[in-house]
Amino acid sequence: MYKIKKPTKYSFLDFLTLELRQHFCEKELELNQRFSKNIYIEVPPICKQQRNYSIGDNGGTLVDFALKMRKLDPEKQMDVLVSQNMASEPEIKNLAERIADFHKNTTIICEKNVLDVRDKFSDLMLEKEFLSKHLGPDYGNCIDHAIKTSNTFLQKNKALLLDRLRSGFFRDCHADLHTRNIFLLSEPQLFDCIEFNDENREIDVLNELAFLCMDLDVLGKKSLSDLAIAHYDLQFPKMRTKVEHHLFAYYKGYRANVLAKVNSLRAKSASNNMDKMKALSETEKDLCLMDGYVNTLKI
Length: 299
Known about the structure:
Elements: E1 2-3, E2 9-10, E3 13-14, H1 18-32, E4 40-42, E5 45-49, E6 52-55, E7 61-65, E8 67-69, H2 78-83, H3 89-105, H4 116-122, H5 128-135, H6 137-156, H7 158-166, E9 170-172, E10 182-183, E11 189-190, H8 198-201, E12 202-204, H9 205-218, H10 222-235, H11 242-269, H12 273-294
Antiparallel strand pairs: 1-8, 2-3, 4-8, 5-6, 5-7, 9-12, 10-11
Helix pairs in contact: 3-10, 5-6, 6-12, 9-10, 9-11, 11-12
């Protein structure tokens, strides 16, 4: 199978030029080979001759680049198995060990603005007017409350975050680790990490696990979510104190916040009303989830 990047630009990514798309295809190949065996193969050119397109070096005019990948069994995708109650506890433990092994061996980040997550959390304010208009003013109030709580929590725990940075808990991670980016094979396969923004990958490992566990919470599998973080922490202890348990809940709220922003942007750019309403429905769920997490924080 082949993956092609759309010539788009947002505040967090830029694929507008051919050179940028080639660069990020090659970077995606390199980064995902850290944990994906034989899934990412090469970056061939896409060429055009008259009205025909070809992938590979077959002459003609270069028009783009593709990422060649091996296609895996879609029935083994984690979200499919979880939704069918077919993800077992041994598989979750095996996955937690796989993620822990990756984190142990990936690059340690020594310099980082540990409060940058505050600004990313607050980015949701840009969607407040749109979401208040389409979902109602209560959701605007929800955004205000979440951002205020986030700012207070992070400022209160800045010393903790700095300690975690000094302790090597910030690493070059996957950064998009949810159930749709995992295949539960005999050896769990992670794929499709964030390649377009280094800063988004250079995060606290608890932030990484928070996305997976939040996703399992959404799917109604809190027991699997709790098992995943507990078993991970046995393999690679990174949640040592009660306040770090609150930090983990904060990170889950942050992940729900990011999903809300992504789905709000999808709603804005939808080409038809059905897609717009679907994206708004997903945004509403994300906001409720975020609100639930931030309301558990001790501030």
